[in-house]
């Protein structure tokens, strides 16, 4: 059979791509009908019989017998003389079915057929992959590092699907080697052309939420609800949790004895510091909890403007702000309030920015990062401690002390 070389690959496609028999037959018929349309102008009068399991295919053209010299449409009509070459008993008006060999379509058409077949198979695969991963958006997925690039890591799952983990979706401390398994959430799936692009993320708050579901049975079972997650990937995160069962302590259940339950999550996120907070509809109390570990003296809130002025003892300010300002920023994101902190008993104090003529702005910014934004708050600190907590040289710190002391002297 002339089509054997082409047909041999049908069963290979079926086995390799795991396409069901009905789908494969439909793809094959579609490909051959397109070829027949190009060759004969139409395909309505052709029967295509496909048996992909046996690697067998037959094409039959159906025509009507007309008297010699009366053929008007070569594709749909056949002369009596030509019909009787197929079978001598044919008469005018009868239907003739004649097998079309692949070789009759021409060598170019056969090559185009194979390319079209491969294209259709890939298109089918890509559509299925797109649907599969679209359903997995927002879910945790594991894949293996296949290739490490400057801007992204290319991962492969067990089925050979390619997943991209961009640099900006990696935790800053992430370091992966080829062959290593990586966990993240499927953040987005897009069809670019006919190829699906699958993006994984390890920085999304959803990843942290899903890790809680995976590692903490009460969250998985719905006994504890995660109200909101905010994070600075690799640095700090705050998770607000609640339970409708008064017998369950949601924070205690999530953290576990001596942090045993949350430890695996912290390790997965590159030792990200995770604060688990009891959710409450009392916004003043929620802000107080969100600023933990700082202890607040009082809060003045403007619910309409969504702002809160928090009063603290001087030694609590740096705790409220946190390293790099992460604590106060995440507290604001968690509660939906813009939070400003103020020290108690500093009415006669002077803000550092008032000294901008004598102290450079970047130096003032370094002090602000660690929660020191007034003259007295700086002077209360130890010089050696300030050098350790900032990027400032001893000479610079001593100069600042000299300028600030002169103000009060």
UniProtKB/TrEMBL annotation:
<keyword id="KW-0889">Transcription antitermination</keyword>
<dbReference type="InterPro" id="IPR025249">
    <property type="entry name" value="TF_NusA_KH_1st"/>
</dbReference>
<dbReference type="InterPro" id="IPR012340">
    <property type="entry name" value="NA-bd_OB-fold"/>
</dbReference>
<keyword id="KW-0806">Transcription termination</keyword>
<keyword id="KW-0804">Transcription</keyword>
<feature type="domain" description="K Homology">
    <location>
        <begin position="307"/>
        <end position="384"/>
    </location>
</feature>
<dbReference type="InterPro" id="IPR010213">
    <property type="entry name" value="TF_NusA"/>
</dbReference>
<dbReference type="Pfam" id="PF26594">
    <property type="entry name" value="KH_NusA_2nd"/>
</dbReference>
<keyword id="KW-0963">Cytoplasm</keyword>
<dbReference type="InterPro" id="IPR058582">
    <property type="entry name" value="KH_NusA_2nd"/>
</dbReference>
<comment type="similarity">
    <text>Belongs to the NusA family.</text>
</comment>
<dbReference type="InterPro" id="IPR030842">
    <property type="entry name" value="TF_NusA_bacterial"/>
</dbReference>
<keyword id="KW-0694">RNA-binding</keyword>
<comment type="function">
    <text>Participates in both transcription termination and antitermination.</text>
</comment>
<feature type="domain" description="K Homology">
    <location>
        <begin position="233"/>
        <end position="306"/>
    </location>
</feature>
<protein>
    <recommendedName>
        <fullName>Transcription termination/antitermination protein NusA</fullName>
    </recommendedName>
</protein>
<dbReference type="InterPro" id="IPR004087">
    <property type="entry name" value="KH_dom"/>
</dbReference>
<dbReference type="InterPro" id="IPR009019">
    <property type="entry name" value="KH_sf_prok-type"/>
</dbReference>
<dbReference type="InterPro" id="IPR015946">
    <property type="entry name" value="KH_dom-like_a/b"/>
</dbReference>
<dbReference type="InterPro" id="IPR036555">
    <property type="entry name" value="NusA_N_sf"/>
</dbReference>
<dbReference type="InterPro" id="IPR013735">
    <property type="entry name" value="TF_NusA_N"/>
</dbReference>
<dbReference type="Pfam" id="PF08529">
    <property type="entry name" value="NusA_N"/>
</dbReference>
<dbReference type="Pfam" id="PF13184">
    <property type="entry name" value="KH_NusA_1st"/>
</dbReference>
<comment type="subunit">
    <text>Monomer. Binds directly to the core enzyme of the DNA-dependent RNA polymerase and to nascent RNA.</text>
</comment>
<keyword id="KW-0805">Transcription regulation</keyword>
């Amino acid at each position: 059979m002339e089509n054997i070389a082409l047909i041999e690959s049908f069963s290979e496609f079926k086995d390799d791509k795991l396409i069901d028999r009905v789908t494969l037959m439909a793809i094959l018929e579609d490909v051959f009908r397109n070829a027949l349309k190009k060759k004969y102008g139409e395909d309505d009068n052709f029967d295509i019989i496909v048996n992909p399991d046996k690697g067998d295919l037959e094409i039959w053209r159906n025509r009507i017998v007309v008297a010699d010299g009366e053929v008007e449409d070569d594709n749909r009509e056949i002369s009596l003389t030509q019909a009787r070459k197929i079978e001598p008993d044919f008469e005018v008006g009868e239907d003739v079915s004649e097998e079309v060999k692949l070789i009759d379509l021409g060598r170019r058409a056969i090559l185009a057929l194979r390319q079209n077949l491969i294209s259709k198979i890939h298109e089918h695969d890509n559509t299925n992959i797109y649907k599969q991963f679209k359903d997995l958006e927002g879910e945790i997925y594991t894949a293996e590092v296949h290739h490490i690039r400057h801007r992204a890591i290319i991962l492969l799952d067990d089925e050979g699907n390619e997943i991209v983990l961009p640099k900006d979706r990696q935790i800053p401390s992430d370091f992966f080697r080829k062959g290593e398994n990586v966990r993240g959430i499927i953040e987005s799936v897009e069809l670019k052309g006919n190829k699906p692009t699958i993006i994984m993320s390890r920085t999304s708050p959803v990843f942290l939420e899903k890790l809680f579901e995976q590692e903490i049975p009460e969250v998985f079972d719905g006994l504890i609800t995660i109200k909101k997650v905010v994070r600075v990937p690799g640095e700090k995160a705050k998770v607000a949790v609640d339970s409708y069962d008064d017998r369950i302590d949601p924070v205690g259940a999530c953290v576990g004895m001596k942090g045993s339950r949350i430890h695996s999550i912290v390790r997965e996120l590159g030792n990200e510091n995770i604060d688990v907070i009891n959710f409450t509809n009392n916004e003043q109390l929620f802000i107080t909890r969100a600023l933990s570990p700082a202890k607040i003296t009082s809060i003045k809130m403007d619910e309409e403007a969504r702002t809160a002025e928090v009063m603290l003892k001087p030694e609590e300010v740096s705790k409220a702000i946190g390293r790099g300002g992460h604590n106060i920023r995440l507290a604001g994101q968690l509660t939906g309030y813009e939070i400003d902190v103020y020290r108690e008993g500093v009415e006669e104090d002077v803000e550092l920015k008032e000294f901008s003529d004598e102290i450079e702005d970047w130096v003032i910014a370094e002090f602000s990062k660690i929660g020191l934004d007034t003259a007295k708050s700086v002077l209360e600190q130890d010089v050696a401690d300030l050098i350790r907590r900032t990027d400032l040289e001893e000479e610079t710190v001593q100069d600042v002390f000299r300028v600030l002391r002169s103000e009060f002297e």
